[in-house]
Amino acid sequence: MEPDLFTAAAEERQEKDPSSSPLAVRMRPRTLDEVVGQRHLLKPGSPLRRLVGEGSGPAGASSVILWGPPGIGKTTLAYVVSKATEKRFVELSAITAGVKEVRAVIDGARRASGGYGKETVLFLDEIHRFSKAQQDSLLPAVENRWVTLIAATTENPYFSVISPLLSRSLLLTLEPLTDEDLSGLMDRAVTEERGLGGAVGLGDDARAHLLRIAGGDARRALTALEAAAGGALAKGEREITLQTVEEAVDRAAVKYDRDGDQHYDVASALIKSIRGSDVDAALHYLARMIEAGEDPRFIARRLMISASEDIGLADPQALPLAVAAAQAVAMIGFPEAALTLSHATIALALAPKSNAATNAISAAREDVRNGLAGPVPSHLRDGHYKGAAKLGHAQGYVYPHDVPGAIAAQQYAPDALHGRRYYEPTRYGAEARYADVVEKVRGRLKGDG
Questions:
Q1: Which of 66, 165, 181, 396 is the most exposed place for a label (fewest CB within 10 A)?
Q2: Distance (Å, whole) CA 171 – CA 156
Q3: Right CATH number for 261-350 from 1.10.8.60, 3.20.20.70, 3.90.600.10, 1.20.272.10?
């Protein structure tokens, strides 16, 4: 049996005893007009409005992908669609469902469409957790419009959703909720009967702290509000105070999803802060990753990349230090590994910066990809096998150690690339020495002096 998203039995239970559901569930919007935030998606004539039958004109794309961080309304929008349309509404979670469940829904949709003329909306939560093969199984149903797919993801769909499915769907990006959005939502939760029904008030200091705790997540805001309200009522108080919030909510959860976009966003911010030599910002992002339970080996790998990408020969000891940090992290693990990661992050952030090594290999690879290569000069070819001499291989090669300075004036690059320069050292840090050396070496290779 396919799992309906909001079954009649569940709705009946909630109607009989609303208090049995969490506050975040009770305050779930019933219409698009009650949705918090996302104004850019809720304008008259928008695809979501047309999807629920509002306005005139075609419904637009048959399928929709909702992309955004947790707690900003992806599931809520799906719920609103289910309430506003007369279509069959079925939910699957990519965490628990597989191809078998998908096919069952599609078969049911085809039967309903053919036998009863009723269309099906399939809400697929966390579609990024589906493999390529599992996502492929959705294509026939989407392409033939056997179902209207509403898929939700916290990860960048351009990386986590297959291209054929993306091209057949309308991608809607949900924006983080503002403090104003969340403040209004909490006011409604405090006053409305389906919420707290005015049983308690909300002080300004308590509101500000709840907003800090929420970090833009509506579900987290309402969960914390409900806990604080329970604490206030238990003490016989009629207003939620800052002290009550602090007692009810021990600690603000770190706004960081290790499996979602924030995993990459915070890691990117760490590396960019190191690149920009802002040691304090770098330590902040490092702390966020540590507190969120990030794998310390992942952090160490990013630091090793940074050492080559952004520091290079401006500080030749940056890479060995980062490698040593990675080895130490692998051996000791958390919590002590935090000290090692801090050590390495500070050193890299304060090191002189150069991307000359990065630019050098990028330019060389670009030439190779564009076909600029050519044969290896004959005097550099392998001459150790029988018949090599007859081919002229290795003939005329000058062994550098046989000449003063161990630099022989001879051509190393293919003819098409002779004289081309990739490495352009900076004058930052220790790389200034390489800038002097490389000019002298290039002159010697050309036979100048």
A1: 396
A2: 11
A3: 1.20.272.10
Q: Which of 223, 240, 241 is nearest to 185 (CA)?
A: 223
Token code pair at residue 236:
């016989």
pLDDT of 10 reads 44
pLDDT under 50: residue ranges of the chain: 1-13, 15, 56-61, 252-254, 257-259
pLDDT given for residue 185 in this prediction: 92
Residue 245's contacts (CB-CB under 8 Å, 6 or more residues apart) are 206, 209, 210, 213, 224, 228
pLDDT score of 263: 66
Homologous superfamily (CATH) for 8-173: P-loop containing nucleotide triphosphate hydrolases (3.40.50.300)
Residue 375's nearest CA partner among 398, 357, 392 is: 392
Instruction: Report in angstroms the alpha-carbon separations of 349 from 329, 339, 353, 427.
Output: 19, 15, 9, 18
CA distance 41 to 145: 23
- pLDDT, residue 189, reads 92
Share of the chain above pLDDT 90, in %: 16
Q: Which fold has domain 373-445?
A: post-AAA+ oligomerization domain-like (1.10.3710)
| Secondary structure class of 119 (helix, strand, coil) | coil
Task: State phi, psi for 333 to the nearest 5 degrees.
Answer: 65, 180
Instruction: Quote the CA–CA distance of 156 and 264 in Å, as a whole number.
Output: 10
Domain assignments of the chain as residue spans, ordered by start: 8-173, 179-248, 261-350, 373-445
Rounded distance between C-alpha atoms, residue 29 and residue 271, angstroms? 39
Q: Which residues pair with 150 in a beta bridge?
A: 64, 123
Tell me how far apart the alpha carbons of residues 110 and 122 are, in angstroms, rounded to a whole number.
12
- Distance between CA 222 and CA 199 in Å, rounded? 15
Token pair 């507190």 in the structure block, residue: 291
Q: What is the pLDDT of residue 200?
A: 92
**Cβ atoms 109, 141 nearer than 8 A:** yes
Residue 162 — φ and ψ, nearest 5°?
-65, 150
Q: What's the pLDDT at 405?
A: 82
Q: Give the span between the Cα atoms of 88 and 108, in whole angstroms.
A: 10
Query: Residue 178: enclosing H or E segment and its boundaries?
Result: none
pTM for the whole thing? 0.53
CATH of region 179-248: 1.10.8.60
**First-to-last C-alpha distance (Å) of the chain:** 85
